[in-house]
Every structure is written in structure tokens, then in C-alpha cells.
């Protein structure tokens, strides 16, 4: 019965979120998140990160993203990487960003695959390796990621 209730809480939260009724979405997501719903945890992270219906709070965003990332939600892993790239709410760290992007990319998120490719290409947080960069761009491009497709064309043209 508990699983059904938190699924209902999550569904209600999503409806409220899309209707921009953030105060109600927050309550519903919190119920589902506390029951372990990783997407609700991620959505709370987004709300706190962007200040949707709450005061912007990167520490709370980080904590909710971490809970979702512990369950291997690729978008949460990616957003943690973004926080480390920007130094927003955490100490800027190319190595930490790389680590989170790598987890997310391995879980199939095209944006993370592109970001990882860019890090390999530029040598940011990792030793530069254009061959590995191309592999990550290829994976993202295969999912329709336009920036990865363009980067791949440029790389292959310049050989």
C-alpha cells in the first residue's frame, strides 16, 4: 500500500509542478522522496536549485540530487556534475564534475556523454584523449544530440 501512496504523491506532485503550483508540488514530492522515489528526489533538487516555489538553496538541491544519484538516476548525476563545473553550492572541481558526468554518461544520458566528450577533448579534469572524446560524442550523437553530432563532424573532418 505504501508504494501506491507514494506513487500517487509523485503523480500529484508532477501535476502540480507542471501547473506551476510549486507549493503543492513541494509537499507531494517530499512525501514521495522520503519514501525513496528517485524522480521525486531529483525534482526537489531542481526546485531548490532553481528556486521554484522555494528559496534557492544549493545545499538542499545537492542533498536531493545525491539521494537520486545514489539510485543511479542519470539526470541527477549529470546535475551534480554541473554543480561542480560551475562551483554552484559546492567547491568547483573538474575532477568531481568528470566523475559525475562519467557515471551519468555510462547510464546513457546523452548530455553527459557530450559533456564527457568535451572534457576528454579539452583535457579538463582528465588527461586529453581525442579518441575517447570521439567515442563519447558518437554515443551522444547516436541519441540525436545535435551538439555531439556537430562536434563529431568537425573531428572527423579535421583528420
From TrEMBL:
Lineage: Bacteria, Pseudomonadati, Pseudomonadota, Betaproteobacteria, Burkholderiales
InterPro entries from the UniProt entry: ISR_Activator (IPR052748), Sel1-like (IPR006597), TPR-like_helical_dom_sf (IPR011990)
Signal peptide (residue range): none
Name recorded for this polypeptide: Sel1 repeat family protein
Highest taxon listed in the record's lineage: Bacteria
Protein's organism: Oxalobacter vibrioformis
